[in-house]
Known about the structure:
Mean pLDDT: 85
Number of strands: 5
Largest sheet: 3 strands, mixed
Oligomer: single chain
Number of helices: 21
Amino acid sequence: MIMTTESPFTHPQVDMSHMRSVAGHALTLFDTVRRPYDLPRRARDLLEVGALLHDVGFPIDPLQHHLIGRDIVLDSDISGLDENERAIVACLVAFHRKKVRPDEEPAYVRLGKKDQHLALCLASLLRVADGLDYSHTQTTHIRTCEIRRQGVVLHLFGPHAEEDGARALKKADLWNKIFQHPVEVTTGAMAEPPAGEPAPDREEHRADVQTQPRLQSQTQADDADLNHWSLITERSSARTLAETGRRLLRTHFQELLTMEREVRKDTDIEGVHDMRVATRRLRAVLPAIKPVVSAQALRPFQKPIRKIARSLGEVRDCDVFLDLVRHYLEPLPAEQRPAMAPLVTALQRDRAAAYQHLLVVLDSTGYEIFKRDFARFLTDRAEGWNPRLRVCDVVGSIIWQRYEALRAYETAIDTDHNHSPIAPIAPAAPTDSAESANGVIYPDPDQANPARDDDDAALHEARIAGKHLRYVLEMLSAQHGELVDRLLAPIKALQSSLGSIQDIAVAKAYVATLETTKEEQEALDQYIRCREAERVHLLEESRQHWKELMSEGYRHALAELVVRL
């Protein structure tokens, strides 16, 4: 192991006394349940390492220190641990707080079934052990720890035993799912040590005796490798691009896994939206890390992510359209609403079909293979990655490239630079339909307005270019928050306006495909007229946001961000 019990993390906010206390409690618990539950001896070492690292991310981000700590483990070369063992330790750090949802953790997804079970067993022990020093006083001790018919009974003593014991019981939720013997705690007189007996119980002391010589025998040079991670709190731009890219990909992959659960529940349309956003962020980061990893290494993941994004997009388009139609219907007199029924019915039908197709994708073997392989790619050692290139060496040029790519759409948005004004709106008429490759229904091109179609396509492409700039700026938000927030504000505003314009384009094309009666068609035409009146306002709104983005002041702010790197 590369750590010792004596200050591998010199940051003053890393409470090594607490982590050593938790490690001692965890080993006592392990020694109690090891034989009844047939846990391997090697697992004791993994539990110890996880306990000694569980709070290492606290100085960097107290609210997310379990995830920061996980990244520290995954980005460090801990000697003596193979890839599976390092992933197990990362799981322990990630699972020591908050509700444990293992299928949403990349380090867990990367493991085989047997190691996944072991990770949960050890995490359940660590959670209880962490609760036993909830007071951070190291004054609660285990007098005895024994398995009885009703469960594992912990006899605690110390001035904070009741408080710490209550916390341990609260954090025993995972334990009670994994082990047949639930945790019970007793405190008070029956748990007090006999007169003259030292406070730490013999079992805990035995664990400490076994732990300390082995860990303290490691060299200071070994300590330095993990120590430098604990001190990185400000200059993330000095980190390597490989490290930053892997962390971002883990974060967005975890968001995708988390939102998958919401998508499957299908109780809130925002689940589909958020999972789709996660795919977009993944797709935005992948090209940004090409300077440090081969295209061949990235290629296996690009197509599956696109497939997931496309399936989510088909559902999301229906959700947005339905939501807009319902808002339109709310103020209408009751007698006018039935004429809109063909549109609502068609959207509900298409949404149901798109959602079923999405479930087929999520239930497929290919998707399971993608999740496992991508998790391994993000959690295994970064072999073949360029370890020297830093974020500050490349991100400046990436920012300007993304900005220039967005600026290329100036003539499509800003009429002051456009000698051909955006085409006027032509009324929709029912036509024969044609289906595009992405599943969206468009009217017959022969009867469409080519100039207007070109305008809509250009505006949609500009929105995508804006997202690409937005995502690379968000990579720097943690360290340059106020400046990045100022740069992001007009991009987000432009995206919102252009997104609404795209929704109108999709709505008009979709309505043109419906078979309706004369009365229904009149109602749909009125709906489209309302949306197109909204489009005029949105275009003007977009131009105002665009002028701010293209202003000299905005470019100065971008340059300031690059200088700060």
